[in-house]
Amino acid sequence: AVAEKTIINDINKLRKEKNAVILAHYYQRGEIQDIADFIGDSLELARKAQQTDADIIVFAGVRFMAETAKILNPGKKVLHPNPESGCPMADMATYKGVLELKKQHPDAAVVSYVNTNVDVKAVSDIIVTSRNAVKVVRSLKEDKIIFVPDQFLGSYIAKQIPEKEFILWKGFCPPHFNLTPDQLLELKEKYKDAKIAVHPECNTETVKIADFVGSTSQIIEFATTCDSENVIIGTEVGLKHQLEKINPNKNYIFPVNADYCGTVHCCDMKKNTLDKIKEVLENENNEIILDEELMEKARKPLERMLNIV
Ligand code: 13P
Ligand code: SF4
């Protein structure tokens, strides 16, 4: 604990000296959430990155999130504490594959989840996050949508917008995919009054049994304010930290084994540590550097989204 306090003091000194801001996603380790200047879901974090007047952004999240901050702020230094922290789902979509689909369906709009790499964003018409996906897709004039890369978020949107035709990339989030409806229903047996809240990255069968579906922030809002004392949470276990901080009077139930990789635990999100945050603040290493042309192209669909919601 003494060592942790020293690191935190060093981080505080460095961020002040360098006019740096630390942005963190809800799936980060608790100790990182505690020192962040701002915590949010991916849409809130993108917006915060766009608005900040800091000179340096330290992005505690997976790489596509740090890339998004850089694309929106090409003039700023964006540091990623651990460059190994990627998103396996983002890596499932390829630039070439998207171009191929575009060729096959020239009348479709390419809608990419923010969980994509910069090259895929560059060939997209618009970006969405889990918070705004339905609203953004509904606002498009095209009747045909190529949705990349999350087939489950894609199916969830498709169900709400039956008038449009969807071509779904077959990507998925490994930790959310592994959460089965049975795991949640078993908990519901034990806590009969409980509400079930899940992320739309969960597979369709799991989403079907939920009382609430939303982004990480939306799940936090629902769980901390709904009228049941017990809430079963179908998303990454990092949320527990904020839930208990915001409303400690409720019982947040995460599926069994949630503390282990293989259930709803994103190993990549946990690769950032306080030590690494201090290190990048000190040395200004692990800077996000992207190809200028790709960045320019990727900014358009991102800004188009931010102008809608
Ligand atoms: P949110 O936009 O809900 O924060 O989700 C990001 C993410 O990677 C979920 O796995
Ligand atoms: Fe990617 Fe899933 Fe981890 Fe989110 S939880 S960063 S979608 S692997």
Give an account of the 3D structure.
It holds the Pfam family NadA. By secondary structure, the chain is an alpha/beta fold. It folds into 3 domains: 2-86 and 270-290, NadA-like (Rossmann fold); 90-172 and 294-308, NadA-like (Rossmann fold); 175-253, Rossmann fold (3-Layer(aba) Sandwich), CATH 3.40.50. It is built from 15 helices and 12 strands. The protein has helices at residues 2-17, 30-35, 42-51, 63-72, 95-104, 118-122, 133-138, 151-160, 174-177, 181-190, 204-208, 216-225, 239-246, 274-283, 292-308; strands at residues 20-25, 38-40, 56-60, 77-79, 109-113, 126-128, 144-148, 165-168, 195-198, 212-213, 230-234, 251-253. The model has no long low-confidence stretch (mean pLDDT 96). The structure holds 1,3-dihydroxyacetonephosphate and iron/sulfur cluster.
Q: TL;DR of this structure?
A:
44% of the residues lie in helices and 16% in strands. It has 309 residues and is α/β, with parallel strands linked by helices.
What's the CATH topology label of the largest domain?
Rossmann fold
Q: Which hetero ligands occur in this complex?
A: 1,3-dihydroxyacetonephosphate, iron/sulfur cluster
Number of strand elements: 12
Please report the distance between the alpha carbons of the first and last residues: 42 Å
Structural class: alpha/beta
Q: What is the general shape?
A: globular
CATH class of the largest domain: Alpha Beta
Q: How many domains is the backbone divided into? A: 3
What is the helix fraction of residues, given as a range? 40-55%
CATH architecture of the largest domain: 3-Layer(aba) Sandwich
